[in-house]
Amino acid sequence: MEGLVKWLGHASVRIEGDSIIYIDPWKLKGKEIKADIVLITHDHYDHCSLEDIDKVRKTDTKIVAPYSCQDKLKGEIHFVKPGDKLTFRGIEIEVVPAYNIEKRFHPREYEGVGYIVTTKGIRIYHAGDTDYIPEMENIKADIVLLPVGGVYTMDAEEAGKVVSTINPRLAIPIHYGSIVGNLSDAEKFKELCGEVVKILPLQN
Questions:
Q1: CA-wise closest residue to 147 among 32, 33, 10
Q2: What is the mean pLDDT of residues 34-51?
Q3: Each residue of 62-82: pLDDT tens digit?
């Protein structure tokens, strides 16, 4: 199951299921597999990078992003908000909230998002840039991709609370190793949660 997800650094991942899906591609080398679907969580430069989207984009790639990205992205974009649901190529995509509780970086009204992607019968939750928020109590997922770097997002301890709430089969730390956070944050997350946590090698 863990082979479905490749960590590309920071919050960027590639899901290799029934389709090739990138979430928040950033600092890609340019030799990656082309994308069927690209999902963007919010408009910050390290998440919404037109340069990196173009590296994996092909003529029929579906691009999904929140409305905060309207001024940054070009071409046919499917703009979304929390609560929306879409289906592309048989892949179900649920759009969920992502925001900070007491930090100023990602206010709730900003409508940044996370995604639940269902592929090969497995539900994969990418939390986006968020703290532990009440809406997570209603999320059901087999795999969770959680930020652990702190400062702009939840830290390892908060991510541990998310694992306790959702009870996934697999938890993968992201949003560390670039800008904020380092390997020790991922390791702390694993210490807190045990074998459910898998620290992925950098693929990019």
A1: 10
A2: 93
A3: 999 999 999 999 888 999 999
- Extended beta strands in 67-150, E state: 77-80, 85-88, 91-97, 113-119, 122-126, 143-147
Instruction: Quickly list H helices, the chain.
Output: 50-56, 156-166, 183-193
Which CATH number applies to 2-196: 3.60.15.10, 3.30.420.40, 3.40.50.620, 3.40.50.720?
Answer: 3.60.15.10
Query: What residues does each domain of the chain span?
Result: 2-196
Q: Return the CA Rg of the chain.
A: 15
Helix (H/G/I), strand (E/B), else coil: 94: strand
> Alpha-carbon distance 128 to 27, whole Å?
17
* Cα gap 156→142, rounded to integer Å: 19
pLDDT digits (tens, 9 = 90+) for 128-158: 999 999 999 999 999 999 999 867 788 899 9
CB atoms within 10 A of CB 195: 8
